[in-house]
């Protein structure tokens, strides 16, 4: 079935977060770089929800707290100081980041505010050591043109990136604080996009403008798209953390499908007359049912004296196995809720049984104990009593929401374009002023200074690249779409490499390597520059570039010189080449005798195969010719 | 109505424009400027803000500042919704638990944020402390009261007197321990003062603070408070102690003896350190472990002796290279009664200071020596300079912290006018401020 997005009333807004490439983090003087080493210290904290300005505490946060969740932070001296540890007040707003944000604001016709006020946005999952994220609006009411359409920019802001989640156990969540405080530029569009592809196009256009500032970080995870999406009769869903641009439209398509399916399910449940009261029921103990079970999971739980609890989902028979999007059934949605609130590994439901060693007899007995009719489903879970109760309570709630339709929630994007339940949508914006950071006035003088050195807009630059460097349109566009436009110009200016050689390497070669699994992001701009300098001074052959890049991606701390020495990529001297060719001719003496001049082709192939990247083909050709004519005489 | 208060923080052009528009803090304003329209709630201006900008909270929750210019138009659209603070209902008190009193004097531990302005204000009542840390109900039956709402820099010796009397009141009512919530900056001084003022304590007195204000999710206040109440309710000692984080983790709380504790870091959670003595005890997972055998045991039968008088005409003088000796004479001319010198190393000052010190001693001022090294004991027998100072009548104060020494001198002079008696008292250990041995790991 093809979805008509117009018909379903799709509305999408984007929030694009781009890490900036600055000397310092947003509120301290640590380098904004992720650490590759093992952590040097760890510390343990608990975050306590505080009352919001409305006198309320975030229920999810309070719940987590009550369960005694601890947060373990990993740190090292290189990437964090007392500020990230919440052991020292923040320093003033980083001016370099502010200038980049103002640049982006002017490039998107966004009006800078007169005075920037840093706020605290409550975030209590532990990803910020403080329990809030520092964030500020730098500009308002902008607009960019994408194709024929005007896309309003609601605001451009600066905020600190959060800590990296490393892992999670039953009672502890672990974060690495190196990423905490890296400046993020936030661009929020109005929810005006009506097709998944359109949203992807806008994301690409915004990304290009940000890259055009020349001051953004590159590589996986340095740009993250949050999507807010709604359809008519559906709900506003926030999807966090879409890392690949290519995933934007598939995420949106999947989400629309999910909401439509949920609406169908809701309609079905209403037809079946599922009522609110049906969901007010007791969770029951079904240990007895499984006392002789062969299901390994249940057996293990019972042996550990844990509980097996169950609850009936009225009129849900058959619904739990309905696929909402690839790899996501209604049963998965309910299980995700149970996992979040109950911290259980997962739940069982009757739509997937008999399986996992659970027998038909057990299934019948379960339904009987739960007083489930044929049209009902039963979900059950094994675990500590408190966890199991919370899990099934959450499952029941989610089931009840299915009668109403699509529940508002925050979902997290997976690399395959699907999404999963993340947490309830935060209530009213809980933002209050960060009083430790003085406000920053943006003067007219400051703005005119930024305006006087605005980078070219992507479209202008594209034209100039094609014209100034004689690149064909396709190559020029590829360079623009890569992160390397600036690097490209630097290389061409500082070496005598031809523009096309540099451009092909920076686009096609690197893309091909990436496709084959090389982490090309690990190769630094400085390394690439060094490679081209050595290329133009004859210390390296063009053909050796891919091999060089692969090696450097695995050894980011090494230089090109190291690589040339270790991989023996250096150009051979004429004597060395001559000697090598002499050996080849000796090995193929009969061939040379037989074919005479015509042996050139095959021998050329043999030699180049062995020496590719270390010798110029022209010089091999010359030496071979001489030697063949001498030997075949 | 007082406009000044309704437009708090605003001055100059901004204030004038707001007055003209008839706006009050919390009102919804629409501001037109350079063909841009901004709408939001008027937010108070920080006292350090300039005179031109108006701060509004936009609908998305962000605040921005708008500069008032000739062509800025402002319209009051109506009243915004006022934030209402609701205290959660108090947890049920378990009558079989020990009784602890919490006396609040101010500081970050007893503060809350105004979410509109971000300003940190003293908590509305000491019960707030209790309602935001409901676990306390499982540890002790709590009586909470507000005594003062002061930043600790503003706490004076007369406040020590007040606090000491309030504690004595609670103890005479039979509580099992008292917790004093206090700002951390001068918390060490207050702890020392209480150590001298409250003698023959039957139960512990725990002074507690926090380095991150209690309104923040990451605040250390709750963990410190839980530790303090645990100690007040159950600790085996009956002394004045400071309860604060042991490390940067929210894992263990150390109890430091009131006369041996010092704030050693401007911002870290584990800022308080025991100096020249081990900490008294550690609390981890609700378990109290004593870290020394030398402490006064809890004994509810003991009768408290309150000696809350302090005299303020004393000074702490830090010696430094190039110090003008005349500064010492200034104290004499102002009729000071005592001077604690923070000397170098083992307890020295330059000999240019000798004559004014001699004159001060001769005029009846008590002069005593501590060390700016913080760790270690003064010994004025090792070098000539020290021997000379002793000959002038300067009293070496062993391993007493300079901050404790100044508090003690105030207290001593509050007990007696007799100089000889004062000198004797200063040299006598009252509350663990002087120890006879110093060990390697202290």
Describe the structure.
The complex is a heterodimer of chains A (633) and B (442). Chain A has 633 residues and is of the alpha+beta class. In chain A, 40% of the residues lie in helices and 20% in strands. Chain A is built from 21 helices and 23 strands. In chain A, a hairpin with a 2-residue loop joins strand 16 (323-325) and strand 17. The longest helix of chain A is centred in the middle third of the chain and has 24 residues, at 248-271. The radius of gyration of chain A is 31 Å and the shape is globular. An eight-stranded mixed β-sheet of chain B has the order 9-6-10-12-13-14-17-18, sandwiched between helices. A five-stranded antiparallel β-sheet of chain B has the order 4-3-2-1-5. Chain B is of the alpha/beta class. Chain B is 25% helix and 24% strand. The radius of gyration of chain B is 26 Å and the shape is globular. Chain B starts with a helix and ends in a 15-residue tail after the last helix. Chain B has three domains: 3-79, SH3 type barrels, CATH 2.30.30.520; 99-306, L-asparaginase, N-terminal domain (Rossmann fold); 314-427, Rossmann fold. At the A-B interface, strand 2, strand 5, strand 6, strand 7 and strand 8 of A face strand 2 and strand 4 of B.
Strand content of chain B: 15-25%
- The number of E-state strands of chain B comes to 23
Helix content of chain B: 25-40%
Shape of chain A: globular
Question: What are the key terms here?
Answer:
heterodimer, A: 633 residues, alpha+beta, Gyrase A, domain 2, 4 domains, 11-stranded mixed sheet, 4-stranded mixed sheet, 23 strands, B: 442 residues, alpha/beta, SH3 type barrels, Rossmann fold, 3 domains, 8-stranded mixed sheet, 5-stranded antiparallel sheet
């Amino acid at each position: 079935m093809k979805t008509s997005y117009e018909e379903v009333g799709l509305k999408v807004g984007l929030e694009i977060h781009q890490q900036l490439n600055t000397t310092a983090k947003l509120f301290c003087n640590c380098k904004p770089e992720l650490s590759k080493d093992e952590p040097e210290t760890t510390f343990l904290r608990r975050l306590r929800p505080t009352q919001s300005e409305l006198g309320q505490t975030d229920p999810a946060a309070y719940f987590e707290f009550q369960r005694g969740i601890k947060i373990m932070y990993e740190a090292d001296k290189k990437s964090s100081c007392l500020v990230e540890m919440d052991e020292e007040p923040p320093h003033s707003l980083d001016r370099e980041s502010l200038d980049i944000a103002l640049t982006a604001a002017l490039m998107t016709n966004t009006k800078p505010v007169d005075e920037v006020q840093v706020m605290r946005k409550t975030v209590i999952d532990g990803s910020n050591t403080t329990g809030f994220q520092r964030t500020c609006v730098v500009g308002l009411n902008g607009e960019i043109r994408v194709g024929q359409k005007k896309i309003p920019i609601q605001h451009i802001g600066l905020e600190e990136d959060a800590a990296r989640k490393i892992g999670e156990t039953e009672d502890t969540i672990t974060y690495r604080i190196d990423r905490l405080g890296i400046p993020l530029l936030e661009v929020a569009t109005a929810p005006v996009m009506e097709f998944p592809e359109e949203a992807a196009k806008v994301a690409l256009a915004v990304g290009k403008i940000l890259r055009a500032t020349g001051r953004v970080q590159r590589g996986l995870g340095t740009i993250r798209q949050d999507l807010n999406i709604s359809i008519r009769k559906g709900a506003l869903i926030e999807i966090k953390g879409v890392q690949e641009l290519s995933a934007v439209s598939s995420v949106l398509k999947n989400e629309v499908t999910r909401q439509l399916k949920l609406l169908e399910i809701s309609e079905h449940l209403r037809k079946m007359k599922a009522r609110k009261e049906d969901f007010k029921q007791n969770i029951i103990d079904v240990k007895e049912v499984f006392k002789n079970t062969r299901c390994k999971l249940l057996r293990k739980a019972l042996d550990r004296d844990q509980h097996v609890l169950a609850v009936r989902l009225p009129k849900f028979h058959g619904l739990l196995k309905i696929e909402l999007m690839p790899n996501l059934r209604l049963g998965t949605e309910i299980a995700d809720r149970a996992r979040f609130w109950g911290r259980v590994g997962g739940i069982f439901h009757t739509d997937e049984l008999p399986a996992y060693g659970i027998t038909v007899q057990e299934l019948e007995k379960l339904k009987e104990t739960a007083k489930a009719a044929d049209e009902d489903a039963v979900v059950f879970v094994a675990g500590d009593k408190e966890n199991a109760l919370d899990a099934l309570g959450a499952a029941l709630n989610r089931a009840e929401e299915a009668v109403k339709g699509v529940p508002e929630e925050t979902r997290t994007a997976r690399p395959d374009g699907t999404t999963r339940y993340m947490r309830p949508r935060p209530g009213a914006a809980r933002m209050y002023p960060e009083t430790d950071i003085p406000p920053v006035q943006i003067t007219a003088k400051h703005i005119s200074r930024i305006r006087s050195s605005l980078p070219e807009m992507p479209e202008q630059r594209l034209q100039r690249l094609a014209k100034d460097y004689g690149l064909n349109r396709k190559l020029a566009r590829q360079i623009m779409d890569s992160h390397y436009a600036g690097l490209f110009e630097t290389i061409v200016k500082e070496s005598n490499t031809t523009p096309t050689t540099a451009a092909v390497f920076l686009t096609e070669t690197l893309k091909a390597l990436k496709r084959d699994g090389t982490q090309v992001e690990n190769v630094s701009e400085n390394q690439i520059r060094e490679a081209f300098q050595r290329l133009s001074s004859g210390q390296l052959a063009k053909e050796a570039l891919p091999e060089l890049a692969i090696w450097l991606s695995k050894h980011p701390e090494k230089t090109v010189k190291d690589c040339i020495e270790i991989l023996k990529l250096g150009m051979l001297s004429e004597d060395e080449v001559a000697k090598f060719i002499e050996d080849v001719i000796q090995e193929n003496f009969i061939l040379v005798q037989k074919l005479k001049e015509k042996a050139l082709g095959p021998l050329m192939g043999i030699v180049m195969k062995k020496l590719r990247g270390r010798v110029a083909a022209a010089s091999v050709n010359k030496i071979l010719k001489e030697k063949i004519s001498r030997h075949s005489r | 109505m007082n406009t000044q208060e309704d437009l708090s923080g605003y001055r100059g052009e901004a204030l004038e424009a707001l007055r003209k528009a008839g706006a009050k803090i919390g009102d919804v304003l629409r501001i037109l400027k350079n063909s841009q329209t901004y709408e939001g709630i008027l937010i108070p201006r920080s006292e350090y803000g300039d005179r031109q900008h108006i701060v509004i909270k936009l609908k998305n929750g962000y605040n921005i500042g708008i500069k008032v210019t000739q062509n800025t138009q402002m319209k009051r659209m109506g009243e915004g919704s006022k934030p209402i603070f609701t205290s959660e209902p108090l947890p049920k008190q378990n009558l079989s638990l020990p009784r602890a009193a919490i006396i609040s004097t101010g500081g970050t531990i007893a503060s809350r944020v105004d979410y509109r302005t971000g300003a940190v204000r003293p908590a509305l009542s000491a019960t707030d402390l209790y309602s935001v840390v409901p676990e306390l109900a499982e540890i002790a039956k709590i009586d909470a009261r507000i005594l003062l709402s002061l930043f600790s820099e503003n706490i004076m010796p007369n406040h020590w007197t007040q606090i000491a009397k309030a504690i004595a009141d609670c103890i005479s009512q039979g509580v099992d321990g008292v917790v004093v919530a206090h700002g951390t900056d001068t918390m060490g001084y207050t702890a020392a003062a209480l150590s001298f003022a409250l003698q023959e304590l039957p139960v512990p007195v725990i002074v507690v603070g926090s380095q991150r204000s209690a309104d923040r999710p990451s605040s250390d206040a709750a963990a410190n408070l839980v530790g303090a109440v645990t100690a007040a309710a159950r600790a085996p000692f009956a002394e004045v102690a400071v309860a604060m984080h042991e490390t940067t983790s929210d894992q263990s709380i150390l109890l430091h003896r009131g006369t041996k504790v010092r704030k050693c870091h401007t911002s870290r959670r584990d800022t308080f350190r025991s100096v020249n003595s081990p900490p008294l005890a550690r609390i981890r997972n609700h378990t109290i472990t004593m870290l020394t055998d030398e402490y006064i045991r809890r004994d509810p039968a003991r009768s408290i002796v309150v000696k809350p008088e302090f005299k303020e005409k004393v000074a702490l003088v830090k010696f430094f290279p190039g110090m003008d000796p005349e500064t010492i004479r200034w104290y004499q001319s102002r009729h000071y009664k005592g001077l604690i010198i923070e000397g170098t190393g083992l307890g020295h000052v330059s000999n240019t200071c000798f004559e004014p010190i001699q004159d001060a001693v001769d005029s009846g001022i008590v002069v005593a020596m501590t060390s700016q090294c913080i760790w270690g004991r003064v010994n004025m027998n090792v070098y000539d300079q020290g021997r000379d100072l002793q000959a002038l009548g300067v009293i070496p104060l062993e391993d007493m912290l300079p901050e404790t020494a100044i508090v003690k001198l105030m207290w001593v002079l509050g007990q007696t006018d007799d100089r000889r008696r004062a000198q004797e008292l200063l040299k006598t250990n009252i509350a663990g401020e002087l120890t006879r041995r110093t060990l390697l790991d202290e």
